[in-house]
Amino acid sequence: MTKKRILQIGSLAGHAPANAELSARYDVLELWKAADQEAFLREHAQDIEVIATSANIGCKTNVINALPNLRAICSWGVGYDTIDVDTAFARKIKISNTPEVLNDCVADIAWGLLLACARNIAWGDRFVRANHWENKVGALPLGTRVSGKKLGVVGLGRIGEAIARRGLGFDMQVGYHNRNPRNDVNYQYFDSLVKLAEWSDFLVIATVGGASTKHLINETVLRALGPKGMIVNIARGSVIDETAMVRLLEEGAIAGAGLDVFEFEPKVPDALKSMNQVAMMPHVASATHETRRAMTDCLLENLDSYFSTGEMVTPVA
Ligand code: 8YV
Hints:
Distance between the termini: 32 Å
Shape: elongated
Number of helices: 12
Bound molecules: 2-keto-D-gluconic acid
Number of strands: 12
């Protein structure tokens, strides 16, 4: 049987077997390897009905516009702020992502960063490695208690809920802000972000990225979190006004930050790199063997499903 053709926009480098698994099943046109991508798109414009991409690479307007027969975009990852959804939906192009399978691992990293920040775990690691303990060079400062405190979640969706549930295991009170309250949870709802930030000891960002949430966490919200408050972001760097956050961390107007994502990643502000009250990861919250395997399986299921039924298994609504 001849393989169906797909266009793969970028390498799925975040899961080593993924590229080979796609090529084993499909006749893959690898856009990212083309020296002249526009010429490549022109050459194959009529043949491409399906795209495979990822959350970090997305699918831009020019690619969609270059492909008159495009019907489906299947993405690896849950976020789709990098895909021009409006242009795609206007042409009735279907989009799928890989939701649910990464909730737990992303929530675990939110908690890892929260604990690292509050209890100086990354700082302590640096302290030991630098032989400061052995050589009695100063002492690691006291940390901040986590158990029993107040956890604010911005964006109580699938990942936000997994973060909130873990908070209950730490005997925390949990509050959240969404556009609308949910009637299926018992957590305290705040209709304003500023009120949630004022209430919270730890504010964890788990909302979607893109234009609708750009700089949602601005200077006012950060000031409301206050000099003892800590912020954690496992969502998208664009949700926080990073310049304001760096300035307020420098001033001590907020106590610390645990960050997996950055506004202009992989560029990270130099100022953050020298702050011991900041714990950072290179956008790897979903990066476990198990979760990345599940994300690749979900991508393949969506592609297979589209080709056999015309429908996605996990469509983006
Ligand atoms: C991706 C993510 O792994 O799923 C998402 O939306 O941000 C991550 O899980 C990341 O984009 C890969 O670089």
